[in-house]
Amino acid sequence: MSDPNSSYVADFLQSPGNVSGLLGGAAIATALSFPFGLLGAALPLLVTVGLEVIACLFVPDMTTFRRWADEQRKIKARIETTERLMGEIRKRCASPNQFQKYLENHQLVMQQVTSVLDLAQKKPGALGLEDRERIAAVPSEYLSLQLSLLVMDERSDAIDLREVNRKLAQIVSQIDHPENGADVRQLERARDEYAALIARHQRMLSKRPAIEAAMVSLPDQLAEIYQIVMGEGPQNDGARLSDAIASLRLRQDIEAEIAEDLSGAILDFRLMQPGNASKNSARVLRS
Q1: How far apart are CA 237 and CA 229, in angstroms?
Q2: Ranges of H-type helices in the chain
């Protein structure tokens, strides 16, 4: 098992302040090497190394540094998530103009989130740490909802429900009237797979209005949080702020539920591609 402290040491070594200190020590050593040679460069280098060793022993254990390091990791994770979602959305856009529209909508959400977090930073205690992290995650979650809509469109184009229902009815008929040598267990398995595909597809499409409503209402929710924090703060208007934060929680619950329904979306899409669908159907029907 890896030592959790080692990650904080690595964070310290890569931190901007530490890198600047090392570069400063190297610069001083270089400057002193011209008039005094290697002996002049050795002293600042030894001092720099000594300070670095002492700092590595104490700084990674400091609560303030760990809080900073944890925040930097969360920021990096959000950036990576945003880039990954952007890449998935770009692949599914019909044109550059469509992707540009999604990008502009995301930037507007980012601006709102930045405004709320900047205001909360100027008003200590206005928002708790958990609430700030929840708000900071909103832009990537907005992209996730947008990607969900695109995946739904992709599946709707890839899956012909009438054809799936026709195959399901054909398999059910074979189960009810099996031919000699037919593997009924395999037929029942195919029946269950097609039935699950249809149920998952219909359940996912039924949630599209909830996704669209969540995306449309998101800017208003962020604006409401900003107004509450800017105005009276949670001390005098805690109920409204709690309700506004709760609405973000509800939207995130919707996203989590939709993500679970979409877990088989790529598989369903691949199965229904030309070639794969025909091979799958032929295998089942031959059984």
Answers
A1: 9
A2: 4-14, 16-58, 63-92, 96-122, 129-136, 138-158, 161-176, 184-206, 208-230, 234-261, 265-271, 276-286
Using one digit for the tens of pLDDT, what is the confidence trace for 53-99? 899 989 999 999 999 999 899 889 989 989 998 998 998 888 889 99
| Pairwise CA distance, residues 42 & 245, whole Å | 57
Burial of residue 112 (number of CB atoms within 10 Å: 0-12, 13-18, 19+):
buried
Q: How far apart are CA 73 and CA 57, in angstroms?
A: 21
Q: Confidence class of residue 200 from pLDDT cuts 50, 70 and 90?
A: confident
Cα 92 to the chain's mean position, in Å?
A: 17
From the list 100, 98, 120, the residue with the least C-alpha distance to 108 is 100
Report pTM.
0.67
Please report, for the chain, the start and end positions of each structural domain, with discontinuous segments joined by +: 4-60, 97-286
Give CA–CA dist 224/222, Å, rounded: 5
**Of the candidates 217, 93, 109, the residue with the CA atom closest to the CA atom of residue 147:** 93
Alpha carbon distance 148, 102 (integer Å): 13
